[in-house]
Amino acid sequence: MKKVPFHIKFNKIYTASLCVLFLFTLLKSNAQSPQKMSYQSVVRDTSGNLLANTIVGVQISLLKGSPNGTNVYTETYNPIPQTNINGLVTLAIGTGTPSIGLFGDIDWASGPYFLRVRIDPSGGTGYSIVGISELLSVPYALYAETSGNSNSGDNWSTTGNAGTDAATNFIGTTDDQPLNFKSNNVLVGGIDASKNNLYLGRRLLVDPIIGEKNTAIGHSTLSSITSGDNNTAIGYDAQLPNSSNSNQVQIGNTEVTYAGIQVPWTITSDKKWKEHIRSLPYGLDLVSQLKPVDYIRKNNEAKTREIGFLAQDVENTLAEIGYVDQGILSKDAKGSLSLRYNDLIPVLTKAIQELNARIEQLEQKD
Questions:
Q1: 86, part of any domain
Q2: Are 285 and 226 found together in one domain?
Q3: 196 and 278 housed in the same domain
Q4: What CA–CA distances, in Å, run from 259 to 49, 178, 239?
Q5: DSSP string, 275-332
Q6: Is the domain of 204 the same as that of 332?
Q7: What's phi and psi for 357, nearest 5 deg?
Q8: Are residues 23 and 128 in the same domain?
Q9: Cα separation of 107 and 148, whole Å?
Q10: 296 and 236, same structural domain?
């Protein structure tokens, strides 16, 4: 328990018998803040002699607003306090017997507050010595518990904050370390500004430091990544086709049975994004060898039939016609093939054009 000096200023009222010097400290704990403050007073007579080993009656009050303000709290002590050999009496304000208010109900945010101390040197209740001191700084640990809207210094409330300044108030780090979030002491998300990585969910991005500009949202998402930059994965256990490549996007996992979008899907097609442009060399010859099928996807609980191609059949067809530098097929790290169906639209267009040309030639012969 560490004692931190607590600043006060004094407005003293004296009687003919005693003079009291007030020393005030705040008990500060690293654990949950105690509902008490430590108070010490050295008691002397008017001649300056210490009242050592003497029982003294003490009454503590907290006044709101001014030295003559509203008395929000008063307490006395039983057993009766006694000074030590040095004339020092030590109390814990908040642990006495209250006669006005409750110490835990004091709203420290609505001060200022003034501490009034009355002492009876005979040990009774005939309090004749009065000292009033303004609390020039608020006990932080107590203030944080009672002021739900504080945004001053470190007083950030878990129940909401008002009057914040976006230029100075924030949640985060001030160095190059990631800002991490935990639930039940388990990492569930974070932001790494130095690497531009964003991760939200449990067991994701096994090492958030890997790569740069990566985004992972969902439980176990991107947990298999080993390197790579500018990757994005969204959804439970969403993994990239290749755990070491860059510039990949994955939405959902292998259990997904439906993906929809409200508006037509738009694919970038501007000429400025392309190079090595040539007329498509394959059309009718490729289409005529494709093997359309319908099938039931294994994870489709509705057991409805889908229409498409088998990627292995397309792979064989492309190899037979010599179309080897294409990207219509891709293989992930586990060896599973994927087919980019929209690439077939230009092939079908070319096939129709070639078929139409043949029809025109036949018509001309007739």
A1: yes
A2: no
A3: no
A4: 88, 33, 16
A5: -S------SHHHHTT---EEE--TT-TT---EEE--HHHHHHHHHHHT--S--SEEE-
A6: no
A7: -65, -40
A8: yes
A9: 10
A10: no
Radius of gyration of the chain (CA): 39
Q: How do the pLDDT tens digits run along the chain, 366 residues long?
A: 333 333 333 333 333 334 444 444 444 333 344 477 888 888 877 677 888 999 999 999 999 999 999 999 999 999 999 999 988 999 989 999 999 999 888 888 788 899 999 988 888 998 876 688 887 765 545 555 555 444 444 566 777 777 788 888 888 888 888 888 888 888 888 888 888 888 888 766 655 557 888 888 888 888 888 888 999 999 999 988 888 899 999 999 988 888 888 998 898 899 999 999 999 999 999 999 999 999 999 988 889 999 999 999 999 999 999 988 888 999 988 899 999 999 999 999 999 999 999 999 998 887
Question: Which one of 199, 233, 256 terminates a domain?
Answer: 256
What size, in residues, is the chain?
A: 366
Rounded-to-integer distance, Cα 323 and Cα 214, Å: 33
Whole domain around residue 9: which residue ranges? 2-146
What pTM did the predictor assign? 0.50
- Residue with structure tokens 């000074």? 83
CA distances in angstroms from 41 to 71, 93, 110, 267, listed in the order given = 21, 12, 27, 79
- Closest by alpha carbon to 37, among 9, 71, 6? 6
- Number of structural domains the chain divides into: 3
336 & 209 share domain = no
**What sign for the dihedral angle of Cα 315, 319, 322, 324?**
positive
CA 50 – CA 58 distance, rounded (Å): 17
Q: Is 79 exposed, middle or buried (0-12, 13-18, 19+ CB in 10 A)?
A: exposed
CA 125, CA 77: separation in Å to the nearest integer? Answer: 11
Q: Report d(CA 302, CA 366) in Å as an integer.
A: 52
164 is a domain residue: no
> CATH code at 16?
2.60.40
